[in-house]
């Protein structure tokens, strides 16, 4: 039975957008398969790693009766990649075998029944919904995602807190040493809803969202969240846990304010970082009247030092940081000017953008 | 399917409905179907429309996923060695497996619990209901058990833990106290007698050999062990007249034969049989009754006549000691020779 006639690229592109999450080894073997479903004149592809499920539609001429089947995702992907990009591809399903024909090539693949494929139930009933531009959401993700923990036993830190509240969308991530907060406006008002997105979902969204004004529709339900953008529907499970109260972590009333140019400081820190200790990556910042001295030493007693002219006239300050935490924030923000607030060498510092309170980054100092 | 001797328990479990505790511990000897009960309960808990008798419907989406082995919310935690498709938990007797497949761990590793924690840290797939079956629970060392304990103490929403153990004394007391315990013992004779008339029932002598554990007997019958058992009885009964060293040689090749390998029959089981044979002998000598080999009571009685109380209890103790090292015999042939020599000495020794 004919399923689809199309060009290689018209099938490979959607396959790649769902197959990215397929894991090579999984306790449930059917999860290495992609679910292909023909319904009317639509052919959809669906893949899941249990935590995330991605579905998309393909183009091309679609024929035959409605049917669904699963087939090894990586194999299908490898076959399509190896075919000429503009060539015609014909996909048929007969006798539980999926056949891909292109030119003189013919590949017959084993299948498993679609009924055995664990699909997530889509949430129905109460849910918070909003729409936002893909570009805005993607940018906001980038502003905080680097601060998520990785494989922390406090599993709620291995994710990103998303809060839709009134006309505001807030995102928070922390690994216990630093915390990033970003907010953006929403057009319509929504009831306050909080979820923790798993790390993998955040990474997948960052990979798949476009830098365009095209809309992203978000549905926050009790057990899962649905993201719809372009032809893609991404459903993610949520981390079940209580995220730390971020508002208490963000310090108020700093005495010292330093305003600086992002690019030169980033360059300086990248150079000084070369001679930091591999494990702790500490740099020492000494702030005096109009100058900022940045220094590092490593286990071999090698040293790096650099001095910048800055607009600062407060009391002198001597403070240490993990340079990675500083590089992260400077790399993932894009404004020219950055503000940095301190109290003393033992309390956390706050990084913000001048003239708005939509971004906050709190970083703990370290003893050098 | 619920075995007749578990029907009452099943009714009580079903009757609990939503009051089912989040952690249950099924304890009792091997071969009673504790794991089957746990699996049947798990199926019921995941099913979206269980039947009136409490069983999973077998048709709904969750049932379909479960039956094809793809239900993401059914999380069996079993030793790698037991994870092979056909084996399901309890194997015949405590010795069970032969020497094959040594490399796979017979322990539940701490990584399995860590993966479980990670899996449970996100919400469920079909719903928030997730069922974790830990079998055998005693296959966890203290570190692993403590990791599981954290989950039992603060179970994620919707999670139900079903622990199965044939050796509950080897569990951490903290694990036991976190679970509602359900104990099972040897089924009543009349229930088993009824079951023995059924289509799948094993021969009665196998049931006796397993100490009255119906499923252990059924597994023996299914694996083709009854032919092996008959040979064992014939050989051991003939021993007083024969040469123990020669028999040890024959048995060594027997253990390597195709029939033995196909039935999963190995040294641990053979040793168990010898020990049970001697147990019956000692029991009869001391005025008790034949328990494991009721069909051979004539032979055993004749042998008992030839031995003394001291010799037979001594032999029994020596075999018990040997049995403790049976998983790691230095040399199978030497071990068999040792046991058969001791046995032959007990039954051919001068009567006092
Ligand atoms: Zn069902």
Short descriptors:
heterodimer, A: 368 residues, alpha+beta, DNA Polymerase III, Chain A, domain 2, 3 domains, 13-stranded antiparallel sheet, 6-stranded antiparallel sheet, 7 helices, elongated, B: 352 residues, alpha/beta, Rossmann fold, Zinc Finger, Delta Prime, domain 3, 2 domains, 5-stranded parallel sheet, 5 strands, 50% helix, binds zinc ion, nucleotidyltransferase (chain A), DNA-directed DNA polymerase activity (chain A), DNA_polIII_beta_N (chain A), Beta sliding clamp (chain A), DNA replication (chain A)
Could you characterize the architecture of this molecule?
Chain B: Its EC number is 2.7.7.7. Chain B: InterPro entries: DNA_pol_HolB, DNA_pol_III_delta_C, DNA_Rep/Repair_Clamp_Loader, P-loop_NTPase. Chain B: It catalyses: DNA(n) + a 2'-deoxyribonucleoside 5'-triphosphate = DNA(n+1) + diphosphate. Chain B: Residues 82-107 are annotated as: Disordered. The complex is a heterodimer of chains A (368) and B (352). Chain A is α+β, with helices and mostly antiparallel strands and 368 residues long. Chain A has 7 helices and 23 strands. The longest helix of chain A has 12 residues, at 8-19. By secondary structure, chain B is an alpha/beta fold. Chain B is built from 16 helices and 5 strands. Chain B has helices spanning 7-16, 34-46, 61-67, 110-121, 142-153, 173-178, 189-196, 204-209, 214-222, 225-238, 244-255, 258-263, 267-285, 297-306, 309-324, 332-348, and strands spanning 23-27, 74-77, 130-134, 159-165, 180-183. A 5-stranded parallel sheet of chain B has the order 2-3-4-1-5, sandwiched between helices. In chain B, β2 (74-77), α4 and β3 form a beta-alpha-beta unit. In chain B, α4 (110-121) runs parallel beside α5 and α13 packs across α14. The chains are: A alpha+beta (368), B alpha/beta (352). Chains A and B meet through loops of A and α4 of B. Bound molecules: zinc ion (ZN).
Q: Return the CATH architecture of the largest domain in chain A.
A: Roll
The greatest inter-chain interface is formed by: A-B, 23 and 21 residues
The CATH class of the largest domain in chain B turns out to be Alpha Beta
Classify the helix fraction of chain A into a percent range: 10-25%
Strand content of chain A: over 45%
Instruction: Output the CATH topology of the largest domain in chain A.
Output: DNA Polymerase III, Chain A, domain 2
Number of strands of chain A: 23
The unreliable regions of chain B are 85-102
Overall domain count of chain A:
3
Name the quaternary structure: heterodimer
- Uncertain parts of chain A: none
- Helical amount of chain B: 40-55%
Within CATH, the superfamily of the largest domain in chain A carries the name DNA Polymerase III, subunit A, domain 2
CATH class of the largest domain in chain A: Alpha Beta
What name is given to the CATH topology of the largest domain in chain B? Rossmann fold
Annotation field: number of helices of chain A: 7
CATH H-tier superfamily of the largest domain in chain B? P-loop containing nucleotide triphosphate hydrolases
Q: How many β-strands of chain B, per DSSP?
A: 5
Distance between the termini of chain A: 70 Å
How many individual domains of chain B?
Answer: 2
**Average predicted confidence as pLDDT of chain B:** 85
């Amino acid at each position: 039975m004919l399923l689809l006639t199309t060009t290689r690229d018209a099938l490979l592109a959607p396959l790649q957008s769902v197959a990215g999450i397929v894991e090579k080894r999984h306790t449930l073997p059917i999860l290495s398969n992609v679910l292909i479903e023909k319904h009317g004149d639509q052919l959809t592809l669906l893949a899941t790693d249990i935590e995330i499920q991605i579905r998309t539609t393909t183009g091309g001429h679609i024929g035959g009766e409605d049917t669904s089947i699963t087939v090894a995702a990586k194999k299908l992907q490898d076959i399509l990649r190896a075919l000429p990009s503009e060539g015609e591809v014909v996909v048929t399903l007969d006798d539980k075998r999926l056949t891909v024909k292109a030119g003189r090539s013919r590949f017959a693949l084993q299948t498993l029944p679609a009924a055995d494929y664990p699909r997530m139930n889509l949430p129905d009933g109460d849910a918070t919904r909003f729409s936002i531009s893909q570009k805005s959401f993607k940018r906001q993700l980038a502003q905080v995602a680097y601060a998520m923990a990785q494989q922390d036993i406090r599993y709620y830190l291995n994710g990103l807190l998303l809060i839709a509240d009134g006309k505001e969308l807030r995102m928070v991530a922390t690994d216990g040493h630093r915390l990033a907060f970003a907010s953006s406006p929403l057009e319509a008002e929504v009831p306050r809803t909080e979820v923790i997105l798993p790390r993998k979902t955040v990474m997948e969204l960052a990979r798949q969202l476009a830098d365009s004004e095209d809309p992203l529709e978000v549905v926050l339900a009790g057990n899962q969240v649905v993201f719809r953008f372009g032809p893609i529907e991404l459903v993610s499970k949520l981390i079940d846990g209580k995220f730390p109260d971020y508002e208490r972590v963000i310090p108020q009333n700093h005495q010292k304010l330093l305003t600086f140019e992002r690019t030169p400081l980033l360059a300086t820190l990248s150079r000084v970082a070369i001679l930091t200790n591999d494990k702790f990556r500490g740099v020492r910042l000494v702030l005096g009247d109009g100058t900022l001295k940045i220094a590092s030493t490593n286990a071999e007693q090698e040293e790096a030092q650099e001095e910048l002219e800055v607009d600062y006239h407060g009391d002198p300050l001597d403070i240490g940081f993990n340079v990675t935490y500083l590089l992260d924030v400077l790399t993932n923000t894009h404004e020219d000017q950055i503000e940095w607030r301190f109290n003393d060498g033992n309390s956390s510092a706050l990084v913000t953008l001048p003239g708005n309170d939509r971004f906050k980054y709190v970083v703990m100092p370290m003893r050098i | 399917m619920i075995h007749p001797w578990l029907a009452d328990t099943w009714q009580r479990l079903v009757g609990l409905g939503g009051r089912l505790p989040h952690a249950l511990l099924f304890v009792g000897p091997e071969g009673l179907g504790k794991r089957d009960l746990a699996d049947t309960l798990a199926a019921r808990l995941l099913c979206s429309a269980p039947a009136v008798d409490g069983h999973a419907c077998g048709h709904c989406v969750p049932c379909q996923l479960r039956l094809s082995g793809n239900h993401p919310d059914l999380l069996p935690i079993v030793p790698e060695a037991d994870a092979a498709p056909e084996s399901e938990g309890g194997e015949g007797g405590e010795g069970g497996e032969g020497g094959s497949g040594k490399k796979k761990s017979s322990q539940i590793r701490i990584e399995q619990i860590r993966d479980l924690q990670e899996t449970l840290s996100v919400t469920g797939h079909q719903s928030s209901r997730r069922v974790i079956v830990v079998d055998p629970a005693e296959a966890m060392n203290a570190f692993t058990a403590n990791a599981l304990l954290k989950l039992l103490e603060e179970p994620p929403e919707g999670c139900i833990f079903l622990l199965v153990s044939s050796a509950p004394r080897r569990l951490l007391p903290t694990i036991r106290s976190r679970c509602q315990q359900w104990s099972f013992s040897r089924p009543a004779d009349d229930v088993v007698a009824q079951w023995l008339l059924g289509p799948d029932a094993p021969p009665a002598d196998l049931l006796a050999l397993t100490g009255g554990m119906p499923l252990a007997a059924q597994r023996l019958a299914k694996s083709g062990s009854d032919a092996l058992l008959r040979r064992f009885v014939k050989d051991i009964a003939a021993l007083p007249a024969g040469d123990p060293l020669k028999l040890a040689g024959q048995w060594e090749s027997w253990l390597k034969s195709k029939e033995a390998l196909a039935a999963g029959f190995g040294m641990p089981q053979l040793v168990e049989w010898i020990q049970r044979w001697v147990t019956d002998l000692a029991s009869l000598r001391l005025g008790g009754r034949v328990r494991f080999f009721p069909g051979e009571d004539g032979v055993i009685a004749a042998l008992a006549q030839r031995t003394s109380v001291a010799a037979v209890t001594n032999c029994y103790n020596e075999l018990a000691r040997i049995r403790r090292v049976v998983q790691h015999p230095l040399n199978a042939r030497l071990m068999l020779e040792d046991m058969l020599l001791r046995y032959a000495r007990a039954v051919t020794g001068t009567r006092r």
